[in-house]
UniProtKB/TrEMBL annotation:
This is TIGR00266 family protein. Signal peptide: none annotated. It comes from Enterococcus caccae ATCC BAA-1240. InterPro entries: AIM24, AIM24_sf, Trp_RNA-bd_attenuator-like_dom.
């Protein structure tokens, strides 16, 4: 995937260059503009499965992960085709390489990927899902090889773990993590975290990388909900 990102802005835009016949997959609604040399095709987010089985798979992916029922395929008609993308949330965009390493993604992290990259719904163990909230019993796990673009609410910070001790991250700040990492989801402290207000956390073990976002979108929702409910 050949792309450039707007600079000196906290809300970046990604412009992807495509050649004739080259295509990418992007989250439904992420396209901002293209130069007229692109075809856009909406399809069920079912990893290529069609018919009733595809619809059931796409619905299941949508219900279990919060992602869109449909996914968009953008294909180049010329060697100078361009399409610009932006995520729904105000924050950073980062490229991950898929192939030698695979990734698990939290809800809302997926923005776009090469046609050679896909993802499957991976069933979590019960200890990782009982308080999951965002992914429930399933998380998104990458397959294939190529480039994957993820997005966050706020900036993205990369944390490397060497396996010497566990590392704890608030559940709402986790964007993506290496497939090699094991993890448990637990209460931060007290009864459901009420004594500290921290709520649910992810405790990671092993060697690998965690991508975290610097802002909590549920915290934002909590701040604005009183104004929405009162009509202020």
């Amino acid at each position: 995937m050949q792309y450039k990102m707007t600079e000196n802005t906290v809300f970046p835009l990604v412009e992807v260059d495509l050649r004739t016949g080259e295509s990418i997959q992007l989250e439904s609604g992420a396209m901002v503009y293209h130069n007229g040399e692109i075809t856009l095709e909406g399809k069920m987010n079912s990893n290529g499965k069609s018919g009733l089985g595809g619809a059931i798979r796409a619905l299941g992916r949508s219900m279990s992960s919060g992602e869109s029922f449909f996914i968009t395929k953008a294909s180049g008609l010329t060697d100078t085709a361009k399409v610009a993308l932006a995520p729904a949330t105000p924050g950073a965009i980062k490229e991950l390489q898929v192939g030698s390493e695979h990734w698990r993604l939290n809800t809302g992290a997926f923005l776009a990927c090469d046609a050679s990259v896909s993802y499957n719904m991976k069933r979590q163990k019960l200890s990782g899902a009982i308080f999951g909230g965002t992914g429930g019993l399933f998380v998104m796990e990458t397959a294939g090889s190529g480039s994957l673009l993820i997005n966050s609410y706020g900036d993205i910070v990369e944390i490397q773990l060497d396996g010497t001790k566990p590392f704890v991250v608030d559940n709402q700040h986790v964007v993506a993590w290496s497939e090699s990492l094991d993890y448990n989801i637990k209460v931060a402290s007290g009864i459901f975290g009420f004594t500290t207000g921290e709520g649910v956390v992810n405790e990671f073990h092993g060697t690998g990388t965690i991508m975290i976002q610097t802002r909590n979108i549920e915290g934002l929702a909590g701040l604005i909900s009183p104004f929405v409910s009162t009509g202020s």
